[in-house]
Amino acid sequence: MEQADLFAEALNLTMFGMGFVFLFLTLLVFVTKLMSAIIQKLQARAVNKLESDDGTTLEQEIDEETKFVIEQAIKLHRGA
């Protein structure tokens, strides 16, 4: 009898533990998706603001900056 009670208690504890872990991981997935959606909206707003400010796109600005950095690195390497 005592062994059956012990087995039932272990099964009960296992089910509660697994249920808690399942709920926690499900909540974690939804929170992560929500944060991802928020970041994507913020990023889209920032890109739109950047494009509307000076008429250049983010890619053009990065390319110009990269070009400048490469030119400076070449000058530094040549000793000029």
Structural notes for this entry:
The protein has helices at about 1-55, 60-80. It is mainly alpha-helical and about 80 residues long. Helices cover about 90% and strands about 0% of the residues.
SS summary, helix count: 2
The shape, in one word, is elongated
The chain-level structural class is mainly alpha
Helix content: over 70%
Average pLDDT over all residues: 87
**CA-CA gap between termini:** 91 Å
Q: Care to count the β-strands? A: 0
Largest sheet: none
What low-confidence regions span 5 or more consecutive residues with pLDDT below 50? none
The fraction of residues in strands falls at under 5%
Global Rg: 28 Å
Q: Can you write the helix and strand succession as a string?
A: HH
What are the salient characteristics of this protein?
mainly alpha; 92% helix; 80 residues; single chain
Q: Secondary-structure map with pairings?
A:
Layout: H1 2-54, H2 58-78
How would you summarize what this structure contains?
This protein is an all-alpha fold and 80 residues long. It is built from 2 helices and no strands. It starts with a helix and ends with a helix.
